[in-house]
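Hi,

I'm pasting everything inline rather than attaching a file, because the server keeps stripping attachments. The sequence lines come first, and each chain or strand is labelled.
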Amino acid sequence: MATSARTAAPPAARKVPQHRPGSKLRRHNTIVGWSFILPNFLGFGLLTLVPIVVLFYMSFTNWNAFGTADWVGFANYERLLTDGSFRISFLNTLYYTVLHIPLTIVASLGLALLLNNKLRGVAFFRTAAFFPYITSIVAIAVVWNLLFSPDSGPINEVLRAIGITEPPGWLTSPEWAMPAVVIVGTWRDMGYYMVLFLAGLQTVPRELHEAARMDGANVWQRFVNVTLPCLRPTMFFVTVMLTINSLKIFDLILVMTGGGPGQSTSVISQFIYRRGFEENQFGFASSAAVALFFLCIAVTVVQFLWNKKRSV
Amino acid sequence: MKRTFAAAAGIAATAAIVLAGCSGGTEATDPDGPITLTLSGWSLDTTPEFQALADAFTEQNPDVTVELVGYDPVEYNTLLTADLAARSGPDIITQKEVKFVSTFQEGGQLLDVSDVELPDGIGGASSYEIDGASYAVPYRQDSWVLFYNKDLFDAAGVEQPDGSWTWDDYEEAAAALTTDASKGAYQHTWQSVVQGFANAQTGADILDGDYEHFAPYYERVQAMEEAGSEVAFNTATANQLTYQGEFGTQKAAMLPMGTWYVATLIAQQASGEANDFEWGIAPIPQEDASTAGLDNEPVTFGDPTGFGINAGIDENKVEAAKDFLEFAASEEAAQVLAGIGITPALLNDTVVETYFSVDGAPGDDLSKFAFAEHETLPENPTSSRTAAIQGILADMHTAILSGSSSVDDAIAEAQDRVASEVGTD
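And the predicted assembly:
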């Protein structure tokens, strides 16, 4: 195979271009380029693209993991629209996302601004802020569960000490369980996004800051009018990634609350997991996965359009 | 030219890697030659029952070898499902949870094994019957009993269980046993601990979508938490308490738990992980006096563990596989299992003797009675709707015990959800 490719190539290269000059060369380069990304694309195709296409097909069937999958048309989607648990999971997912994104952006940008200064031991603090992101999620869940313990947890001890007589029940209360998960989610993710913001801050030209200072702008004005506009590409990337990751939130919920108490922290990914892997309704679970897919796409497209409009 | 070569080589290498992953195939078995059966299990290092059964069977049938295939215990059914769907499942499929039996059966993965003969008095066989045919054979059946710490009873001056207890007696004793150092009882956070007893002792069927019968059982748990005679559910979940830790280190005087804990407790007392104290098992408290007492059969619950046969098994291996199933349900296998602290599905006097002859096992008659005599109703009815309904009831469980919903509201919500999301008969 390799030899035939070697012998076949020279005549092709020697041929005189028949159409526009350079088109042959361009085609040749394209093919070579494609052949270089082919191994990666094969992996992507086999492990990602094909399963997604199959997922779309499965969402129109009643497949239960074995044997034949009967075509049921839009029955799964109709069921999804009337399913109370899906509605709750959908709203909980939006709730998590709406709370998690701004909190994480504020926290990680704040950290990045602090740690962008020349400071003794800055490398240590940067590493420390990144630690939660690389810590095992199960360990995180165990420790935070203890911290949030309503009666004996340190968080409520502190709240009681500063005069709050009835501190929240956190993970045991349907109202506070989701905020508690968001707090842990923010704490875990802020180190990662901090690194992205730190990289973004390096691109802010020093001259702009100096010019602004000369014009008498104070720290806040410089942040709003110089730093933030220069950070816009980073901010856009962070927002898109955060949105997608928030909509897909799964592991943290699973290990911290299991969706409880009741269904108060049940999210779409968990709904998919339970219908699919616990109840073997893979067809129905697939339709929920497709719904989540389109939700992510829709939100991302809106963000892209908005970003484009602003950059004009 | 060089680049073309590199690209072609790259493609060839990638194709080779991809194709290597898809190799496989089956080889036909000679019916007269030696036969190897594969059998699925989990945590093989710490779950000796599979190897013990395999060895005992091969001893009887030297030309049949049973090879174990280990799976992760938590993802057992998911991994097995994947293997079966890919037609690479084991010959003998261990049924870890009854709620998956109907999935496997409806998916055409299980061979009809109605012709395998079962000994009289074996428990749990009905859990594997679907439309009059059997799809697996039980070999192990744990049931729920009451573990109690005799030392703590004596220290508190409370009379030990005598087999006649109802839940009222249990609640009273728990209150009397509670001290500053230890609680009267520990109720683990699983939904089974409340719902299993409620279903079995009131004769309710979770498939019918009516859950009013749970109310008194939940109200009792709430009352006991209120009185401080057991650790609150929220504390148990937040601090991730384990029942082994609570009972084994004498933080609770009583523990409703499955008989699998007998072997664990013996081992942990021997290793020093659990404190050294006198303990015993008693029949689980009853709904009312009509089923309580040593002249009655106490009602409890539990699901069997069993073996089924892969529908795609090599025809020449079917006989050997059925022989293995018959062996696993036999008294001989029961003796083997009892010898390593496993509760066999077949219980008779000699099996019970073997079970309690282990060093560190309680020797009193009530423990033997509690272990051997009970009407054990299935926790999970064999139906394709069971998994979904149990999921909804698990949500109800956390909603009630976390205190985020009243008992009546949570039950009403569960009934609505089952009716609208799963459907009733």
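The two ends of chain A are 51 Å apart (CA to CA).

If the labels don't parse on your end, tell me and I'll reformat.
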